[in-house]
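subagent[fold] <- orchestrator: predict structure for attached chain, return tokens only, no commentary.
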Amino acid sequence: MSATTTTMQLRSGSMARRPAPVTTPSSPLNRLQSSKTLTPSSNAAISGELDASPDASFDEFSRDKVFSKFLEEEFDVTRFVSDALRSGSASSCSEKLEEGIRLMDRQLRNEINLRHDDLLHLLTSLKETEGSVSLMKGGAQSLLSCVRRIRSEIAEPYHDIKTKTRQLASLHETIELLRSVIRALRQIKKLKEAMETDASRPDLAKSAQLYNEVETLRKEADLNGVEVIDSEIPWFLESGNKIRTEAMKVLEKGMEALNQAEVGSGLQVYYNMGELKPTVEGMVGKYKSMAVKSISTAFDLKAISASASGSLGPGGVQRSGTPQLGGSSKARENLWQRLNPCLEQLHAVMLAVWHLQRVLSKKRDPISHAGFLEEVMQARPFLL
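subagent[fold] -> orchestrator:
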């Protein structure tokens, strides 16, 4: 036991006397250089160290004076090269950079080795995604072609229907125009027959009805420009004027004789032509003008004064030249003489208007049974 104890003390003394190794901070480049002289077991240790801490190289780069410049956001290559040339250590700087590149390549390989399974999984997922995208692209192309085909299949019937609809509308308008033209020609033919039956005394009521129907067709169907109709227009207008003239003669004759039958016949003609109201208003206006003119003539003071005295007396003409009635019996007698025809004229006018109103109140259209007086008084009741 003493020998053993002595041996352990010697060993411990020799270990106490051995100097401790000096440790110096090692940079990535120093570690890279030292790895060149290490054994394979030491390289494996370093590889394990890198695998254990993949971000260690970046931490050491950030602490290195040369490599930390590359990590700056505002790194300038030109300035870095200029500084290296001015320092006179361009070759050593180049070697250091090459060593750093090799170290980074090694670290990149280690990262790839560490994440090999993940990268393979991502690559497989990427391939599957590409396949899905290709499949979806093919489906989208098929859908697009299907939509185009459907669009063409729908668009063609739509255009056909639209064209056929326009053709049908044009055909319908043409048929309606032809019907109006044929009806107008038939009515014109009947009008000619009615006007030529008895040229001296044509059937005015029937002719007026036919004339009104043709005129209504011309306005509603717009037959202007149709050659077969335009060729008949001159004769048609002339016939209308003839009907109006003959009807006015019958109406005036009936008004003078106070014949209700003739007045009713004349009014029936104008009713059939659609001109009853303006005709009656025109007649009433004519009688009104006659009454006003008669009264103005009867009370013409200048004429009364001139005929009452050959020489003007005190009551004759004033110095201002305004005629006035004098106080002589001749002037009064002259006034009454002028009033007699005026009153007779007023009596005839009032009697004619009363007669016209009586006929209008009794007369009704035989077809529509519309009262003539109501027809005339629709807008303005001028007859009381």
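orchestrator: received. Logging for downstream: The chain has three domains: 45-114, 144-272, 275-309+324-384. The chain is about 75% helix and 0% strand.
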